[in-house]
């Protein structure tokens, strides 16, 4: 008789990691095996590669995360010989395009910048660590406010969220003052310019150790901690199928990408947290196909620009001595470009946008040395607004059983469009970005709308719902409708139109799902699929 609950977790990003940690902490005798298709990049599993001091090592880690586009590492990643051709778009470091143009590539003509990371820690090994919380209509309507606040608090604890990161930066403070002058009168109390919460641990020298899945896994990675004995992380292990019979999940089928051996992992509970495209693809390939699977795709559109800070404007709120102090502090950590992170959060009804303002010593691109703003002593800000995208059934990733992708899964096609409602808000946010830039200095990159898919925040394809009415994939506790012991996780569950970075929200949703799954594993073993 089986008395030890086994949990199989697909994907090792922040969400899979939150499930592993919370379930093992809550269910005393449970064991968890985490299966990750990509390689482990760092000695500490899931660490943010931004913390790697050596630039070459950092670049190598990013390249190894790039799945089919992983250059000379492709063979060692067990990836078959998909031919990758140069396309119009390039992926952000550590990610790979889904529509890469070669054999077995996905089709995403209307969402061309869609990308993923394939490595231990997922995108969480590369993320910028901005962790705002959703507010107003961004929140999930059927979770009461008091519970939601508590879920966010727990998610913040898991992600090591700092609400006052870089708050002591005088340059960061001057930026906030200039933005408050420009916009303050138009924003509701409590929703003006502020520091953006970020995920990481401030170091004594004023720098940050950025968080990744490592901090979420926490004690599971500590060999001295008894929880670590009940946790196993297998990298280069591609889950090919979620196995199920009569509405109950029995485990997963895994391919070891080193040996190409295919083997089963039996489990009482399966958690699929393999991103907003590959999770629905895996469910589809497994014959689990709720009507809404892959549909209601959203991301917040992004308009961005780069501005050289103006000495006269900044000089009204910060002194040359304070700038010297800032530059001296920055010199202690030249490999990390971020010096302060500010924002103007979403508020309704008049500011349905999120502004993010990253202060750095250098622009994110090579500025012509002859450019009047080159070498600007006050530095630069990279600024972007996120806008809403209303969920629609027709914005979707769909799967084709007759055409396989480079991994042998039903290939996918993404269809996506921005409507007049979105275009109007994009225009309004672009205008605000011009105002923000003019208040702070001179544009060195004019505001521009990025191609669809650029946010890297893909939502809605496995959305939560209050009832099983065909417009959602999962119930309010993240269980796939009709499958009590199959839980899904990630940004794909977010059912609302949001404008901000979603990871904190998705971890909060995972906290709720993990608590309910743990409760059932403990109290109703047979309901969780156990035989004891
Ligand atoms: P992921 O982190 O994507 O992990 C999913 C994992 O599943 C991957 O490792 C993948 O290899 C694995 N997988 C997929 N299919 C299979 C399979 N069949 N078998 C086994 N494994 C599989 N978010 C924010 O909130 N704030 C930010 O500032 C921010 N900045 C970002 C900057 C960059 C450059 C990037 C790339 C992302 C950023 N994000 C940010 C997004 C953030 O990283 C994601 O929201 C977060 O990582 C999602 O976590 P996840 O666990 O759901 O999925």
Description:
With 532 residues, this protein is of the alpha+beta class. The strands form 6 sheets. A 6-stranded antiparallel β-sheet has the order 6-15-16-17-14-20. Strands 9-2-1-13-21 form a 5-stranded parallel β-sheet, covered by helices on one side. The chain contains 10 helices and 21 strands. Strand 11 and strand 12 form a beta hairpin. The chain has helices at 14-26, 55-64, 145-159, 170-183, 213-217, 278-285, 311-315, 320-331, 420-440, 503-523; strands at residues 6-10, 31-35, 96-97, 115-116, 161-162, 194-195, 198-202, 208-210, 231-234, 237-245, 248-256, 262-266, 269-272, 302-309, 338-344, 354-360, 380-386, 396-404, 410-415, 441-449, 486-488. The radius of gyration is 23 Å and the shape is globular. It has a domain at 165-210 and 301-387 and 418-451: Cholesterol Oxidase, domain 2 (2-Layer Sandwich). The model has no long low-confidence stretch (mean pLDDT 93). The chain binds flavin-adenine dinucleotide (FAD). The site of flavin-adenine dinucleotide has 41 residues, from helix 1, strand 10, helix 6 and helix 10.
Describe the structure concisely for a colleague.
The protein is built from ten helices and 21 strands. By secondary structure, it is α+β, with helices and mostly antiparallel strands. The strands form six sheets. A six-stranded antiparallel sheet has the order 6-15-16-17-14-20. A five-stranded parallel sheet has the order 9-2-1-13-21, covered by helices on one side. The protein has a three-stranded antiparallel sheet with strand order 5-7-8.
